[in-house]
Amino acid sequence: xxxxxxxxxxxxxxxxxxxxxxxxxxxxxxxxxxxxxxxxxxxxxxxxxxxxxxxxxxxxxxxxxxxxxxxxxxxxxxxxxxxxxx
Length: 86
Hints:
Layout: E1 7-12, E2 15-22, E3 31-32, E4 39-40, E5 46-51, E6 60-62, H1 64-68
Antiparallel strand pairs: 1-2, 2-5, 3-4, 5-6
């Protein structure tokens, strides 16, 4: 079981990724998951991931299920015209 707030390293698409579990109590903002292009509302536990060489400024917030299924997801999701961009 993963402990919240502790970073771990994972390899994906030939790159090293820093992955951190965020507990629901620490999730205070809205985020948009790059895996499904749906909103992650405040209070929902999720995963934060970024490429090791890119740094934390390039981190992305994923639903845990989307991160686990990232190899089965399309790389070219289309955002609807009315979707917020955050």
